[in-house]
Amino acid sequence: MKNLLFCTIIAFIILVSSCKKDSDSPTPAGTTSFTFNGTTYSTIKCNFTSGSNSGGVSIYSTLADSAVNSDGSKAIYFGMIFNKTGRPVSGDYYVYGDTGLPNNTPNLVTLLIFEYNKSTNRVIGYEVPVSPSQSAVINDNGKISVTLPDMTMQRQEYDSNLNPVGSSSSVTFSRTTFTEQ
Q: How far apart are CA 134 and CA 95, in angstroms?
């Protein structure tokens, strides 16, 4: 699991390092701007990837939003992973957390969130530790959109060797809609 986390973080850091937001350039139409843990981010790209079944292994569909803050010192990756291989149908989905729900629960979305702070060279991972009473609203009007509710998440900071730094803490996430570009 630590190797998978490490590879995901390295890929994210490479993506973020290669992206530069020019403050003089206009914001593209449909760009999401949101505040998370006190930092305002603007979406660079929000892609939907349809999953597949290959050799009995399911690769689930994902809506992934990559965003940076205004000066480029912080970046965040929001992966919204559906428990299905095709396009998710519109409706309410459980936000998966540390709940004991089986991963084959219908209409389930799991969040994979990493924030990178360039000045400290640290990665912060976030998870939803709460019950399935929180639900996300999924719409597919030709482009997938996910509206995540207000929720509390657990935050854990990691050094460059992926060792935890300090203890975890709670942060509040405000309702945001992410839309496929």
A: 6
Q: Domain extents for the chain?
A: 2-19+32-179
Tell me the pLDDT tens digit for each residue of 71-91. 999 999 988 888 888 888 899
Q: What are phi and psi of 103, to 5 degrees?
A: -70, -10
Q: Which of 124, 126, 125, 121 is nearest to 160 (CA)?
A: 121
pLDDT for position 77: 92
Query: What global pTM score does this model have?
Result: 0.74
DSSP 13: H
| pLDDT tens sequence across 92-138 | 988 876 555 666 677 888 888 899 999 888 898 888 876 556 788 99
Q: State phi, psi for 76 to the nearest 5 degrees.
A: -140, 145
Residue 114 token pair:
């990493």
Outline where DSSP puts E strands in the chain: 33-36, 39-49, 52-54, 57-59, 62-69, 74-82, 91-96, 108-117, 122-127, 135-140, 144-148, 151-158, 164-173, 176-179
Distance in angstroms (rounded) separating the CA atoms of residues 36 and 59: 28
What span, in angstroms and rounded, lies between the C-alpha atoms of 72 and 22?
9
* Gap between the Cα atoms of 128 and 16, Å rounded: 24
